[in-house]
Amino acid sequence: MTFQLLIDGHLVDGADRLEVVNPATGKPLCSAPRADADQLEQVIAAARRAFPGWASAGYAARRGAVEALADALEARRDEFARLLTEEQGKTIKEATGEMIGAIAGLRYFAAQELTPETLRDDGGSRIIEKRQPLGVVAAIMPWNYPMLMLALKIGPALITGNTVIAKPAPTTPLTTLLFGELAAEILPPGVLQTIVDQNDLGKVLSSHPGINFVSFTGSTATGQKVLASTVDTLKRFSLELGGNDAALILDDASVEAVAPHIFHGATKNAGQICLAIKRVYAPRAMMEPLCAALTRLAAEAVVGDGLHQGTTMGPINNKAQYEKLLDLIADARANGTIIAGGGAPEGGGYFIEPTIVRDLPEESRLVQEEQFGPVLPVQAYDDLDEAIARINASDYGLGGSVWTGDVERGIAVASRIESGTVWVNKHLDLPFDVPMGGAKFSGIGRQQGLEGLKEFTQPTIINAAV
Ligand code: NAD
């Protein structure tokens, strides 16, 4: 298969190429076009030219176009899902789930409209708030959910009248490029463009005077760089960053009922989810049955190529992340007890067994850092206040969950956790109409819901004497 960039309505080759690796084999899958700084300038210029027409086209025309993108994606859903598995590693079931989510996300945003709001009309003044598009949006994406992230950025950006430059992560560019081919048939030139880099053009986008808004999802370290680089141009931005979500099990929970949810929340997408469960806190009396149940579930997992039937967990997306996880496992082995997994199956792919570790010192790396993989520490606690304090001691504050037999108690405990989202008796439930985002080092701004939609706009207040 050949892939091209979408620049100003044309599918073109990159100035250079980069190799995309299939993480299930560790071998090259195919090469992708890689843009240089000149091509990026062309893209930004085209996006600026396209903006006035797209902004004034109105919601009805834009809605039709975003729906057409969703239709086109749906028509080729299975092809996209297969490519997603090949470049990202997730199982074909997970890839199909991601495609379903991406299509539904586009449809959700296609149906939204920000209408002018009358803030006051009292005979003396009529004050109206209108939401205007910001201009050119840079959508900078991570490698864990390439298509879902793309949909959740371009959906709200396009419907509100912005033009978009989509930049996938260098290890997962192919599905975004294929989506660009669909967009070339549907959208006017410059309204949506695709650019691929080798981690070198993101910083150009976030500092460029031709970009009005950076919608960034990625690691906290890179998010901090983005924040620093927006200063000179006073650029608007939203940062969806890393997390270290805790699952807090209360003493009235049923281990049997909770364990499968915890395991799934920690190992879905091979644990490569910003909002995955990344540490567990359990009452000391519950440790033995909980650890036994998690060990059983880990032993049942089938790690392998995501395209193979029966695989329940695919590989880690890239070599750097795989090596980071091996390092964290070595550290956990030295400081705690590995009760399941801990190995890296042979075969050339970046495979990690689902790994459960217990009794680590609280200050250990696996408890404190974001592992972003299927390696889960289970920590005992004796006192609930102390457990909440340990959870809140993290710089991260993306998500978290409380597990209990008493929902009201769960809600009361959840409100004491310093995170953007805290679930009770579930994890990873993210309806499109509910805003999500991070507290503390997990981000600034919100995605999804009305709040997330408004981030792609700026208010103009019209204040008339009547
Ligand atoms: P990353 O920060 O390495 O890269 C993310 C994107 O930023 C890539 O497209 C990359 O090319 C680009 N980039 C690199 N340097 C840049 C710079 N200086 N300026 C601008 N852009 C630059 O993240 P990753 O490893 O691809 O993704 C994993 C991380 O993303 C994890 O920490 C995870 O928790 C986080 N994440 C967060 C959310 C959320 O919604 N909060 C969702 C998914 C992933």
TrEMBL record:
Domain of life: Bacteria
Molecular function terms from GO: oxidoreductase activity, acting on the aldehyde or oxo group of donors, NAD or NADP as acceptor
SUPFAM superfamilies, per the entry: ALDH-like
Assigned keywords, A-Z: Oxidoreductase
Coiled coil (UniProt feature): none
Protein's recorded name: Aldehyde dehydrogenase domain-containing protein
Family membership: Belongs to the aldehyde dehydrogenase family.
Limits of the Aldehyde dehydrogenase domain: 16-460
PANTHER family tied to this protein: ALDEHYDE DEHYDROGENASE-RELATED
Active site: 240
Pfam family, one: Aldedh
